[in-house]
Write a structure and sequence with these properties.
This protein has about 350 residues and is of the alpha+beta class. The chain folds into two domains: about 130 residues, no CATH class; about 160 residues, Helix Hairpins (Orthogonal Bundle), CATH 1.10.287. It contains five helices and six strands; from the N terminus they run αβααααβββββ. The chain has a six-stranded antiparallel β-barrel with strand order 1-2-5-4-3-6. The longest helix has about 100 residues.
Length: about 350
């Protein structure tokens, strides 16, 4: 073998050794990284959420519709509250009016009873006067006959007869007036008794008293209708208020979603996907580390500011398998770390 051939053979031998060493090192490195990810419980994968994400658009529309529904319910129950306040004022006015009407009716009944007693005594006295007047009238008839007889006999002048007849006629007029007054007293007594009986709640006997009772009954019916409407309004307002509260809670839940927060923030937000296997280290305030070649030369680049509870699915940064987990919100001092394939929570891997 010539020297040149020896050099070529030696070169091929070293090249083969180098290639084999590179393959073995690569395989060992891959195996080491694989073993590292299998046992490491602190890794998280940065996630970039775009404002044009379909889920963001859908979530924003849902929050908008839910907020509109909640605003409508709040407006409705506030309107019912205002109406209920007005009904309460009307109810108080009617209650005072009914109390005043009941008091007035009771006072009127008592007054009618007292006055009827007085009128009854007056009527009794009047009946005695009328009886005496009737007796006097019988004597007047006899006296008229005597006047006519004496006038014919010439025992009195015509002027005297006229004067005596006028006097007798005044007696008759007084008797008639007395009888009419007696009838008026009896009518007044009857009206007072019927009014008192009607106002006492007995059978209706007096139209005027019945009108008073009907007016009071109308007030009571209005009060019952107002109180029923007030109760319905209060129940409906409570239902709408409860529904509005539930919608507000839903809005708060939706608004806490990382996809919705992206649309509401003036500055770009950074997130990372954390698998459920690493859930224990994902806590607010935990430091975030970024490393060269996944595990070497690590340095702190930020911390966790919020932990979201909604489940997410993402690909494993090494195995490319779908993995279940959740998102955490990050405060990054170095924004370019959001483009790294993997970050670490709590401490640097391998303490490097």
């Amino acid at each position: 073998m010539t020297p040149i051939q020896k050099i070529i053979v030696t070169a091929y031998r070293y090249l083969a050794i180098a290639v084999l060493g590179t393959v073995l090192c690569t395989a060992m490195a891959y195996a080491a990284v694989t073993v590292f990810y299998v046992f490491n419980g602190t890794w998280a994968a940065p996630v970039v959420i775009s404002r044009t994400n379909e889920q963001i658009l859908r979530l924003t529309a849902e929050v908008f519709r839910t907020r509109q529904a909640a605003d409508g319910l709040e407006s409705a129950w506030q309107g019912l509250e205002r109406e209920s306040k007005a009904l309460q004022e009307q109810s108080q006015v009617l209650q005072k009016l009914i109390a005043s009407a009941d008091h007035a009716a009771a006072q009127q009944r008592q007054a009618d009873v007292r006055l009827s007693q007085k009128v009854e005594r007056l009527d009794s006295a009047k009946q005695v006067d009328i009886a005496k007047t009737r007796k006097v009238l019988s004597d007047v008839s006899a006296l008229e006959a005597t006047i006519e007889r004496d006038l014919k006999a010439g025992l009195m002048t015509r002027d005297d007869a006229v004067r005596m007849r006028a006097t007798l006629n005044s007696y008759k007029t007084s008797a008639t007036d007395s009888a009419a007054a007696g009838v008026a007293l009896e009518r007044q007594l009857s009206d007072l008794r019927r009014s008192a009986a009607t106002l006492s709640g007995g059978p209706a006997q007096m139209p005027q008293a019945l009108e008073v009772l009907a007016r009071i009954a109308g007030y009571r019916m209005q009060l019952e209708n107002i109180q029923l409407k007030l109760l319905q309004n209060q129940q409906e307002a409570a239902n709408k208020q409860g529904e509005a509260k539930q919608l507000r809670e839903i809005i708060a839940t939706l608004s806490d979603s990382p996809y919705y927060r992206v649309t509401q923030s003036d500055e770009p937000l950074s997130f990372a996907f954390v698998p459920y296997d690493n859930e224990a280290v994902a806590q607010v305030g935990q430091p975030i580390f970024d490393c060269l070649l996944h595990v070497l030369l690590c340095h702190r680049v930020g911390s966790i500011t919020r932990v979201h509870s909604d489940e997410e699915r993402a690909q494993h940064p090494l195995f490319r398998l779908e993995t279940r987990g959740f998102l955490v919100e990050l405060q990054l001092d170095e924004p370019q770390s959001a483009k790294s394939r993997v970050l670490f929570i709590g401490r640097a891997p391998l303490f490097l």
